[in-house]
Automatic annotation (TrEMBL):
The chain crosses the membrane at residues 435-458. PANTHER family: MITOGEN-ACTIVATED PROTEIN KINASE KINASE KINASE 20-RELATED (PTHR43289), SERINE_THREONINE-PROTEIN KINASE NEKL-3 (PTHR43289:SF6). This is Protein kinase. GO terms for molecular function: ATP binding; protein serine/threonine kinase activity.
Length: 774
């Protein structure tokens, strides 16, 4: 076809035509600085006569226009030009998945496992955003696509994936009249509940994603009956073979993902598109699936199409005004050409005759009525230039000139206005020579200011501060998405969710998300050059809390533990916010017995606790004959009775008792004392009935490691005051024999049965993670 005028837009070529609409590549007139394109979908005349359909169509567009996500084609405007309803959308230079499938079948290839997983992952991410979208009142909008199919998924030459036709299929299904052909060819992508006419939820879209993925992996149709009735029967029966049965290269883990999305019973299916996307992302990344790989594949498979696209851009770049359109559309006869015969069915572009060259262009453009504005502004669009080996994104193009915006009357910018027709005809500005003079003077001053400013900035800017071209990006989504505050490396971020954060340097960045009534989530994300990382954060509801106020003693190596987790003790009197319920509060320090307390925390209440720690050790009383002298480790302590305080069980002590009285010479009693003798509390040095003497060789040593979590050590029912780990350089001496070792913490207890051999070291390493259970 030749270029056509459509109010303030130029229709450059017809991209496709279907049962409900035809889609054109378009560009705004009189905007030579605008190098990009728009997609204009015009509702077909037979549907434009259906008032009920149009009402539903407008309602659905008001929902769809809110779906701003990297994997959903954005809608900018729902409008009416004369009697033709249209939608203005983001233009995608690429192919739909159906075209991809046809091309690889012709080449006797497949799209590839990695590419298929990546495409399905992006579809699922876009749908998950739509499914979770809420209105201004916080209530779910319950958006369901209902028509996910290869035709409704676009892949561009840059490797980006976009879902299209949100809401239109739903509006068509709800119309009171049966639209011939609306569901034709799509029956094979419905869910079992959809073909049975049951109420639908977002899991119906999950099934459709599974169908599209199955077909991309196998390059076969999944539900393909001879007619629609047979296809419906196949979908309802839902007998799905594993993709690996047709493609042996598919790992069994991917089979599980695909079959998990294609369960006939939706209760057994993936319960959200988000969960499906997470599993797909893991395997797509594992196999190297990403935008760059998909882009390279698209450029190779569609090399001729890409070359044609580049040629079209050069050709269409010459069309900027209505006069350009007329010049290209009017032959020597002077009659306006409609689309060529080979362009498909003819559909009228105007209700009446096309404008003549004499007709005023501005008045013609003013016949536009914007039924619903989606915030279309050229300054908000990204201009994408497609090159063979370069991906370049230009941001911030100039806004639409007054020649376009002046003829464009917006009814609403917040999607709340009624679809009332309005006509806006701009006044012809009066020409005044003084305006030209003042404008020229202002232009000279402005130019001088810019030159001076640029020179100054050139001297001041440090070249080292130039942003790296190897920066990466993060696309962040948060559930729930209302009243969320985002911090990136402790710096507040602004913008609507999902939030794209660009120009991030290579390395690890910390993202924090918080919202009233929810716990703050902190996530570390590693950014690599020229990559876009999707990051989904799900906030957990905040628990009801109380406060534990404590005073910490000054001890070397002291640590505070709450419910088994170490807490910061930089303050002398720290306060800990804790959930309501019974809390385990512990304090440990080397050579000190652990302090533990179970505290009942109530909502909004404050509990004060001052831990008092006791040194590790056993008290031992020594008794014997009168005037007997007691020595410990060769140090004289006095005559019996003697009390020895805090003998550390990690040390093996030499105890000596002597008596020089009675004229019968010196009586001597000597023993090596460790556990379990230390736990006896009293030792009697009876020279007439000497007890069995223990030598150093009678003791073995215990080394005990329980992994990252510590436990209190009990020996034969006695609390040693020690906690794990007991290391080799400070092992626990034990008399030769069998022992029951109990490891206790909180309400939990672990038991070890050991055999100690004199003169040997017994080393035990057992990973015992601790998890507090009230």
């Amino acid at each position: 076809m030749k270029p056509l005028l459509f109010g303030k837009y130029c229709l450059l070529e017809r991209i496709s035509v279907g049962g409900m609409a035809e889609v054109f590549r378009a560009k705004p007139l009189n905007t030579p600085e605008f190098k990009g394109y728009l997609a204009l979908k015009r509702i077909l005349p037979h549907l434009a006569e259906d008032d009920e359909f149009i009402t539903m169509f407008v309602d659905e567009a008001r929902l769809t226009v809110q779906l701003q996500h990297p994997n959903i084609v954005r809608i900018y405007e729902l409008g009416q030009f004369q009697t033709s309803y249209y939608i203005l959308m983001e233009f995608i230079a690429g192919k739909d998945v159906l075209t991809l499938q046809k091309r690889v079948r012709k080449r006797k290839e497949t799209i590839g496992i990695a590419n298929s997983l990546y495409i399905a992952q992006r579809i699922a991410e876009g749908l998950d955003f739509a499914h979770r979208k809420t209105g201004e009142n916080g209530q779910p909008l319950n958006i369901i696509h209902r028509d996910i199919s290869p035709q409704n998924v676009l892949v561009d030459y840059l490797g980006d994936v976009k879902v299209i036709d949100f809401g239109i299929a739903k509006a068509a299904v709800q119309s009171s009249r049966t639209q011939v052909g609306v569901l034709k060819g799509k029956m094979g992508y419905m869910s079992p509940e959809q073909v049975q006419g049951l109420p639908l939820d977002h899991r119906s879209d999950v099934f459709a994603i599974g169908t599209v993925l199955w077909e991309m992996l196998t390059n076969k149709r999944l539900f393909n009956g001879e007619n629609e009735f047979e296809t419906m029967r196949l979908v309802k029966a839902c007998e799905v073979p594993a993709p690996s049965e047709l493609n042996p290269e598919i790992p069994p883990e991917i089979d599980q993902i695909v079959l998990g999305a294609l369960q006939s019973d939706r209760e057994q299916r993936y319960q959200s598109a988000g969960h499906l996307a997470q599993d797909l992302q893991v395997w797509a990344a594992h196999l190297g699936g990403n935008a760059d790989r998909l882009s390279n594949w698209m450029r190779e498979v569609f090399a001729e199409d890409l070359e044609e696209e580049l040629e079209k851009r050069e050709e269409y770049g010459l069309i900027n005004t209505a006069e350009d359109v007329r010049r290209l559309s009017l032959p020597a006869s002077g009659h306006f050409d409609m689309p060529d015969e080979d362009d498909g069915p003819k559909t009228e572009i105007w209700a009446g005759e096309p404008p003549s060259p004499a007709q005023d262009d501005v008045a013609f453009g003013a016949e536009h009525t914007v039924v619903q504005a989606g915030g279309f502004d050229i300054s908000q669009l990204d201009l994408i230039e497609i090159e063979d080996n370069v991906r370049e994104l230009k941001k911030g193009p100039p806004p639409l000139p007054a020649s376009v915006t002046g003829a464009h009357q917006r009814i609403s910018s917040d999607f709340s206005a009624e679809g009332t027709k309005r006509t806006f005809v701009p006044e012809e500005p009066k020409k005044d020579k003084r305006v030209y003079f003042l404008g020229a003077a202002a232009l000279v001053l402005f130019f001088t200011f810019c030159v001076a400013t640029a020179a100054l900035l050139f001297q001041l800017v440090d070249k080292d501060e130039t942003p790296s071209v190897d920066a990466g990006s993060v696309i962040l989504s948060v559930t729930p998405s209302e009243n969320v505050e985002i911090l990136l490396n402790s710096v507040k971020q602004t913008g609507e969710l999902p939030l794209r954060i660009d120009y991030l340097g290579e390395g690890v960045h910390v993202v924090e998300a918080s919202a009233p009534g929810f716990e703050t989530a902190k996530v570390e994300v590693e950014v690599k050059p020229d990559t876009v990382i999707p990051l989904a954060i799900e906030l957990k509801p905040a628990l009801k809390e109380g406060t534990i106020q404590t005073k910490i003693p000054t001890l070397t190596g002291l640590k505070v533990w709450v419910n088994g987790e170490e807490r910061d003790t930089n303050d002398v009197e720290p306060a800990f916010k804790m959930p309501v319920g019974v809390v385990l509060f512990e304090v440990t320090a080397p050579d000190w017995k652990p302090f533990r307390a179970f505290l009942e925390v109530e909502e909004g209440a404050e509990i004060s606790v001052e831990p008092r720690l006791e040194p590790v050790g056993f008290d031992l009383n020594i008794e014997g004959e009168q005037n007997s002298v007691v020595r410990l480790d060769s140090k004289r302590l006095g005559v019996v009775p003697v009390k020895i305080d805090k003998l550390n069980p990690l040390d093996l002590h030499t105890l000596e008792v002597t008596n020089r009285g009675g004229g019968e010479g010196v009586s001597r009693w000597e023993n090596f004392v460790g556990l379990p003798l230390l736990a006896e509390e009293t030792l009697v040095a009876d020279f007439n009935k000497p007890r069995e003497v223990k030598k150093k060789r009678d003791y073995g040593a215990l080394v005990l490691d329980t992994g990252k979590d510590w436990w209190s050590v009990w020996v034969e029912g006695v609390d040693t005051g020690l906690i794990t780990p007991i290391t080799k350089d400070r092992s626990l001496p034990l008399l030769e024999g069998k022992y029951t070792i109990r490891l206790k913490r909180g309400y939990q207890e672990e038991t070890l049965e050991i055999q100690v051999v004199g003169g040997e070291t017994l080393e035990i390493a057992k990973d015992l993670p601790f998890q507090y259970k009230p």
